[in-house]
Amino acid sequence: MNEFDLISKYFSWPLSDTSVVLGVGDDGAICDVESGYQLVTSIDTLIAGVHFPKSTSAADIAHKALAVNLSDMAAMGALPKHFTLALTLPEVDQSWLEDFSQSLQQLSTQSGVSLIGGDTTKGPLSIAISIVGWVESGKALRRSGAQIGDGVYVSNTIGDAAFSLWQLNNNDAPDSGCLVKLNRPMPQVELGRSLQGIASACIDISDGLKQDLCHILKASKVSARIEVEKIPLAKVLTDHVNKKNDWSLVLNGGDDYELCFTVPVKNQTMLSGISKRCGVKITQVGVICESGDLEIVGAKNIGRSYQHF
Amino acid sequence: MNEFDLISKYFSWPLSDTSVVLGVGDDGAICDVESGYQLVTSIDTLIAGVHFPKSTSAADIAHKALAVNLSDMAAMGALPKHFTLALTLPEVDQSWLEDFSQSLQQLSTQSGVSLIGGDTTKGPLSIAISIVGWVESGKALRRSGAQIGDGVYVSNTIGDAAFSLWQLNNNDAPDSGCLVKLNRPMPQVELGRSLQGIASACIDISDGLKQDLCHILKASKVSARIEVEKIPLAKVLTDHVNKKNDWSLVLNGGDDYELCFTVPVKNQTMLSGISKRCGVKITQVGVICESGDLEIVGAKNIGRSYQHF
């Protein structure tokens, strides 16, 4: 099977998106852009043994590779539209490709985002996805808008994915709820869209709450005080924290792909409606304050954030 | 040095492009699109040991990674605008990064294309670049428009990059002109733009003239007859072909990043003006004919095209 047959068999499903003028199969894809929108662009790579254990299933890898890019769109308040896939494979394994393709198509259909092109190459397993979304002109959520007095919020629960990875690394029977968060994270696209005009800054939690919140603080030139007891946790993680007296998975665990965002006081009454409409729990974990170090109240053992190198 | 310092030091140079509303440093980049344009999108990955010898310099790798993506824009007749970079590095080597960054900035400035985002991860060396260009609505060059009777053309000379790689693999002293084509290919963006409304189909030669022309033929549902004696060759390659009586480097050698395109008879008189204006040699190598196998006249030893797997 050559590259072109492979693309045609596994990556050329029909698209319903009328903005795609020419999809997979030429030197580039052609897309229309509606007026009144700006483009939001992002790229993320997953590498075997770095971003997922080598034993991860093809379906989980495909889901996650797209989900982390959708999560960037969520963090910008953008509507995901199109993506391209650069797939590097050690060999052509048709059963692996079948599972990968099905899972990718499933999440892309569910999210209304179209695969419009890509390339496949031979090499150590890695998946780079580049995504383009649309955002109403001037309405994107950025990291830089947090103001003193704004509340700091997170969606759903924090640390589930890191706890699951910790269980896998310690040969514990993985908690099924947390394992789903590790392998099949659901990007908060609808929440991101709903936070337009409500949140003053937003980021998705990929490297850990502490580090990602610090990106907001640095970009916004402010600081924050958060209280660990307010951070929403799954029951198994509460038990883990209590037993070990260790908050590092909660504060530094990456891969949750929940949103961390700041909201001015005047907009905070709207959050319960957004929470209900999106079916997402929203919890205030702290408040933005004047510049200085991030203050973390209530945690003894914090540990170190994820470092890429 | 963490990921964020690395990005800030090596990949955050000032941009003059006013369509970039928000560049490197948030979850996504934000760009305006002018009305009257469609987007053209492409992604290409280079992997150490597959797409370039492991001894290739950082500057050559950076140039080539961007050039192959610019070449996709050229083949579509699009104006390259923005790109994102997914850089996977085995380690942080500041001297390597310095060279990589300088070379990338140089070609991007020269080509008027802005680096707007990306990610860096630890792993086996690979570089994925995703590029977005603009094309006047409805004016993109596609592979599918070739018609019976159209001439088949190529830009400049063919096979130089493959000959250079062959020399390197055979421990021959590399011909300097061919080595430049291998390591620093110059994408034919201006030529691609000029062929809008002139060419009926276009592709860039990345996998070899034979295979890439066949993509045009398949997409256009036609065939072609080409004459090897008409294919423009560098002097050293003419000598090689005569000595070895072997056309495989010319027909199957990839990595030239010249354009192969088809032009209806009525437009052919305009090619000499385009050639002069773009400073690019344009040569007719054959003609489009009815469906059937591609006919290659005059070559005995043709060999096999590059296969990705």
Structure characterization notes:
2 copies of one chain form a homodimer. Chain A is of the alpha+beta class. Chain A folds into 2 domains: 3-136, 2-Layer Sandwich (60s Ribosomal Protein L30, Chain: A); 151-297, PurM-like C-terminal domain (Phosphoribosyl-aminoimidazole Synthetase, Chain A, domain 2). Chain A has helices at 3-10, 58-76, 94-111, 160-169, 176-183, 189-194, 209-220, 235-244, 248-252, 271-278; strands at 20-22, 29-31, 37-47, 79-89, 114-122, 126-136, 151-155, 201-204, 223-227, 259-263, 282-289, 295-297. A 6-stranded mixed β-sheet of chain A has the order 8-10-7-11-9-12, with helices on both faces. In chain A, strands 3-6-4-5 form a 4-stranded mixed β-sheet, covered by helices on one side. Chain A has a two-stranded antiparallel ribbon with strand order 1-2. The radius of gyration of chain A is 20 Å and the shape is globular. The model of chain A has no long low-confidence stretch (mean pLDDT 94). At the A-B interface, helix 1, strand 2, strand 3, helix 2 and strand 4 of A face helix 1, strand 2, strand 3, helix 2 and strand 4 of B.
